[in-house]
Design brief:
The protein is α/β, with parallel strands linked by helices. It has helices at about 1-15, 35-50, 60-65, 80-90, 120-125, 140-155, 155-165, 185-190, 205-210, 240-250, 250-260, and strands at about 25-30, 50-55, 75, 95-105, 130, 165-170, 195-200, 215-220, 225-235.
Length: about 270
């Protein structure tokens, strides 16, 4: 990790040398980072007086927009693959892992689910399962990895779960959630579209706050999936400000905010 961050730091310095000054930073970030990055942006602005324009959404869709030329400075993805794809085409610099997350089962009120019976519940024909859309949103890719692991426990599970899963998003073959919905999973529960939604564990708190009775159930070790979050700078962006903001995300202050929101912050100094 130290070697990776050192290389990323050198790249940040190189990118920032020739860039013109800019009044703000344009951040594209995964939807699961909304609360944490909003707080990081506020703290950064309070410290340096530089505003951050935030844009949140599915990482895969953001990758496509940035690859097509949408202006941006910093890309914080819910996976490593999307920012690395931009790096390979010269649209972005090196990618550093700056946070980790985990997948959980978000369960509607009134449904008794535990880590021990989660697979049985998901396979029950009467139980409706939802995920994000694979390919467009890393959350969906991670959910499909859970299905793959389930197949090793009960052969045939993968095909069953992939066939029954309701995929949400704006990609072809998925269901779009109305823009008026303040929380997609809450809307799905209220509309009785799903009973269990596979999502990042960090999102469970806000869902339960909006819909009391919602449970966040940890997946058992045999189904557990870790999400790795990648950070990069866009080569056509305002690189001086982008570099400074990226350093802030990687700093103890930024890492603490991520940890406070439930993320595993790999660069947060340990206390003895």
């Amino acid at each position: 990790m130290i070697r990776l961050v050192t290389g990323f730091t050198a790249a940040l310095l190189t990118l920032s040398c020739a860039a013109a000054d800019a009044p703000s930073v344009r951040l594209h970030a995964a939807g699961s980072l909304r609360a944490a990055m909003t707080d990081i942006a506020k703290a950064y602005t309070g410290t340096y007086g530089i505003s951050v324009q935030t844009n949140f959404g599915a990482s895969g869709a953001m990758r496509d927009r940035l690859a097509s030329g949408e202006p941006g400075d910093v890309f914080a993805s819910a996976d490593m693959g999307n920012p690395q794809a931009l790096m390979r085409t010269g649209k972005a610099g090196p990618v550093v892992l700056f946070a980790r997350n985990h997948l959980c089962a978000i369960v509607r009120p009134g449904l008794a689910v535990t880590s021990e019976n989660i697979l049985t519940k998901m396979l029950d024909p009467s139980i409706k399962v939802g995920t994000s859309t694979p390919g467009s949103d890393p959350g969906g890719d991670y959910a499909w990895e859970v299905f793959r692991k389930a197949d090793a426990q009960r052969p045939g599970s993968r095909a069953t779960l992939e066939a029954k899963a309701l995929k949400i998003g704006n990609a072809a073959g998925s269901m779009a959630v109305p823009p008026s919905a303040t929380n997609a999973v809450v809307w799905l529960f209220n509309e009785k579209r799903v009973d269990i939604f596979l999502a990042y564990c960090t999102g469970g708190r806000s869902i339960a706050a909006e819909l009391p009775g919602v449970a966040t159930v940890a997946l058992p070790p045999t189904l557990a999936v870790e999400a790795t979050y990648g950070l990069t700078l866009l080569t056509a962006g305002n690189r001086d400000r982008a570099a400074q903001f990226a350093f802030y995300i990687l700093s103890p202050a930024g890492q603490k905010i991520l940890a406070d929101h439930g993320f595993d912050a790999p660069l947060l100094p340990t206390t003895k």
